[in-house]
Amino acid sequence: MLYKYHMTTTPQLTELSFTVSGRVARPCAEVFEAVADPEQLSRYFTTGGARGRLEAGADVTWDFHDFPGRFPVTVVEADPPRRIVISWGGEATIDQSDRTTTTFEFEPLDDDTRTLVTITESSWQPTAKGAENAFGNCEGWTSMLNALKAWVEHGINLREGFYV
Questions:
Q1: How far apart are CA 38 and CA 134, in angstroms?
Q2: Quick check: helix, strand or coil at residue 150?
Q3: What per-residue confidence (pLDDT) applies to 6?
Q4: Which phi-psi region, left, alpha or beta, contains residue 42 (left: φ > 0; alpha: ψ -120 to 50)?
């Protein structure tokens, strides 16, 4: 698992962001579909269910047993099978609407027998609360990558019973 934390190169820190990535032993289109398809996403990540396919311009919802309540998610961009960009809620963000930007990138490896999945989230304020929320989401996306790998490669739901 690769972790990267980004800070601006200017003398004053203006935004917090992070990147996590991992490799999944399946073709790029199959891994992309496991993220874009709400039925699959609900099986290994959104423990309370995902509603709506991750397609450009779509407004969907995600629900989690560990954070009850539906989270609205806007799909800013979708370029199958290589990229999905979403915007969703967060506290202590640099955007006045309290939203972050999360980018999923899918890169085929080894003649498309494996996929490098990279998730980058940005828009956190460079404050104690912004850092707390960014680190929490970094943990969440890392968990999602682990669960995605177990689901796509072995049909195992790592999150089942984990939160409730």
A1: 24
A2: helix
A3: 56
A4: alpha
pLDDT tens for 41-76 read: 999 999 899 999 999 999 999 998 887 789 999 999
With left for phi above 0 and alpha for psi between -120 and 50, is residue 152 left, alpha or beta? alpha
What's this model's pTM, rounded to 2 decimal places? 0.90
Q: What are phi and psi of 116, to 5 degrees?
A: -90, 120
Q: Which residue has the tokens 């967060």?
A: 90
Is residue 27 helix, strand or coil?
A: coil
Q: Is 159 exposed, middle or buried (0-12, 13-18, 19+ CB in 10 A)?
A: buried
Which domains, and CATH codes, for the chain?
2-154 (3.30.530.20)
Question: Is pLDDT above 90 for 149?
Answer: yes
